[in-house]
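Researcher: I'm preparing a figure for a lab meeting and need a structural model of a single chain. I don't have an experimental structure, so a prediction will have to do for now. The sequence is pasted below. Please return the structure as tokens so I can convert it later.
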Amino acid sequence: LEKQGRKYCIVLPRTHKQFVHEGVALEHCVLQEHYAQKVTKGKSIIAFIRLRSNKECPYVTVEYDLKTAKVVQCYAYRNSKPDKGVKTFVDRVFDRVKQIEIKEVAA
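Model: Understood. Here is the structure written out token by token.
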């Protein structure tokens, strides 16, 4: 899923510490342990959206539900809605994830 656009890129968290860092920096709930557990159990993809110019700085967090094949959360600082460009990028990337899932089920 590692993907880059012209302005944004996606970073997938690999440790609980990364979830905590994201939640503290953006002051939202992704730091709660159940989000990391959803990823571990194969229920969700949690993706961190970054500006390509500053990949280390938390910007937007996305939760994609693998059962419903939908983005269920997409929030920036303090649960604010991200700008339209981020939303477009997220929709494009996760539409591709949905297409991959459909192909795997059909195979």
